[in-house]
C-alpha cells in the first residue's frame, strides 16, 4: 500500500457514522432487510429484497429517499406522505418509519460500540486539535453516538434531522458535506471526509474535499474509488 496521508495535517476531518465510526450499518441492513422482505412478500413484488439493494438504493441516503429509490427500482409508486405518518401507513414516510421501529428496537436491546480502529483515530485527531464532525443521513445519529459513548467528541453533527429542517438534498448530492464544513468552520478543500458508502463518497467528492477516504465495509474498494475516494482502507486503525 502507498504511504497514507497524515490526517492530522487537515483543517478538519468529517466522518460518516454508520459503518465508519460504529457498526450500526449492520443494524440498518438487518432492519431494512426484515422490513422490505415482509413488505414485498405481502405486496407480491418481484424480485424479492436482495442484499445488493442496500448498497444500491439505501446506504448513505436519507431514510425516505432510500425507500423511494428502492421502490422505484421495482416500479412501485406510493404517495410520499408526511414524516408524521404512522409506521402502518403505506406511504414513503410510513414505510421509512416502519423500518425505524425495527432499528430502534435492535439498537436499544443490543447497544453499540465504536469500531476500535475508528475510536483510536478520533482520539489521535482530538489530541492533535483537529476539528471533528459527523455527517450522517440518519435521524438516529445522536442516539447512536450517545449509546456508543462518543457524542461529546463531535462538536458538529450534521444528521438527517438537520438535513430535513434545512431542506438539504440527500447524499450523493454535495449539500450535507458542504454544510457540515461550514458548520465546523473549515474549508472542504483543506479537509478530509471519511465514508463507507458510494453515495457518501460522491457527496464528499462533489463538495470538493481535499481528501476522501473510503472505508470498505462491503461496498467494494474499486466501487468506492470509482465514486471518488482518493484512498480506500479496510479499517481506520491504519491512520491511528
TrEMBL record:
SUPFAM superfamilies reported in the protein's UniProt record: HAD-like
Keywords: Carbohydrate metabolism, Magnesium, Metal-binding
Cofactor: Mg(2+)
InterPro entries, A to Z: Beta-PGM-like, HAD-like_sf, HAD-SF_hydro_IA, HAD_sf, PGP-like_dom2
GO molecular function: catalytic activity; metal ion binding
Similarity remark: Belongs to the HAD-like hydrolase superfamily. CbbY/CbbZ/Gph/YieH family.
Protein name: Haloacid dehalogenase
Organism field: Microbacterium oleivorans
Lineage, opening ranks: Bacteria, Bacillati, Actinomycetota, Actinomycetes, Micrococcales
